[in-house]
Amino acid sequence: MHQALYRKWRPSNFDEVSGQEHITSILKYQCQTGKFSHAYLFCGSRGTGKTSCAKILSKAVNCEHPTEAGPCGQCASCRAIDAGSATDVLEMDAASNNGVDDIRDIRDEVIYAPSELKYRVYIIDEVHMLSTSAFNALLKTLEEPPEHVVFVLATTELQKLPATIISRCQRFDFRRISTEALSARLHLIARAEGFTLEDEAARLIARHAQGGMRDAISLLELCAGNHLPITADLVTDTIGSAGREGMLRVATAVADRDYETLFSMVDETVRSSRDLAVFWQDLITLYRDMLVLKTTKNAVKYLDLTDSEQAAMTQVAARFTRETLLWHVGLLEDALFSMQKSHSIKRTVAEITLIRLCDPLLDTSTESILSRLSKLEEAALTGTPVARPAPVAAPVAPAIPVADPDEFPPEPYFGDEPVCEPHIPMTSTLPKTAPVAPAKPVNAPEKKPVFPVGVEQNRRILRPLRAWSEVVARVGERNPMVAPFFKQAKAYTTEDGKVIIKFGNEFALGMTKKGDIPETLRAALAVALGRPISPDDVLTEVENDTKASPDSMLDLILEAAEE
Description:
The structure is a single chain. The protein is an alpha/beta fold. The chain is 47% helix and 8% strand. The strands form 2 sheets. The chain has a 5-stranded parallel β-sheet with strand order 2-3-4-1-5, with helices on one face. It has a 4-stranded mixed β-sheet with strand order 6-7-8-9.
């Protein structure tokens, strides 16, 4: 039976553990001196060597001839533990054995001496899955176990462990393995297995493993399944990723508002049977890297990029402001959550989100407005004009040819009534030349247009009522049932001191007219505005035309500045 590479290449001593030197150095010293702790706690992300170190430690405490690297691997104890025949080394999965009865069995067994080895070792994996009663049953035994018992607890979620358990163990935090350490280990395995592995391919596999050795070795075995040289293109096709260059193309297309490229990238991903969620996660990672470049001085310390990749990313990141990048990241995260919930419309969610990334005018959120303001500030400092998105022209219908009236004579009339041709006057009622306006004196004061009595000016200036949230809160204290209707409404003030409240529909308007609600509203307005409010000062209406109403004066200012 074939054995997976991550099991075949599991470390057999502490020197073979990659990227955890801060832990293996301490464990090796304990092996040399023979001063072991009674309980260990190994915590960290998946695939970083917790279970491997636990098994190595179980051999080290029972090894007959320990070495500087830990167990010798040649004595009877090491061979029995490697073969899985040692009854004194028990490995338990707390995910499936998390009850209090399982822990009671361990508590009853620890009093007996080991049958073959020097120490009885209990390895409890995923210990955070134990129940509360199981933790309580383990407390006393974990604090004062017999001298011949060693506990090794492993977990990926340290925050779920009780503080009483953590304080009774010697804790070791396993870090994510660096890309360089992962690449070196992959090259070692590839040479031993007879694979042809390119440096860029190893680096790409290590980057996708996200610090996990087990994930990196599994990806290596997956890419080597067709017995071809493992190149960067092969890794990209196998994993289903568009690669760093593809993500840079997407970001450049967003900056250029190149919709054709964006739709083609999504279409290419879907047609190649790659997962759009992986494509989206790579895009979010790219935006994270661009944010690091825009916000830190020593970006190389936090980025895993080559010199050419960093130069290309710096060039693309220069086309975005930090506010724009933050706004884009928020949209991308929302789209990723939508993709995870609705698998059938991933493509639609991706395409709509990419369109929204290109044009901030399609979004009215605070982040979008900050993005537009940052572009205006940058343009004001540099003196460069702001390029507004060009409107997409609608398809023009073909012109309908107009028939020449001379080609089609009028049809004859066979009725009883005579045919009456329309009378067309030969002279126009308009004068041939426009009258010349009298000359205006140089220093004459400019007269304002006078509107007739009874005719109101069509345009009224409305200013948003800034204290409207305070008014809604005061009304909600007296009438909690109608507070949502006022919260959804919009309030403005006019030049003559009146307050205009616009509701979304007739139902909301009618609900705010009942009982003493108008009086409560006027009292709240009087407190907020600092002046008495009469019934004639409050006007309520239904907002039908959302485009004509001044919903956001900031939008009008931004549009005027961008022009």
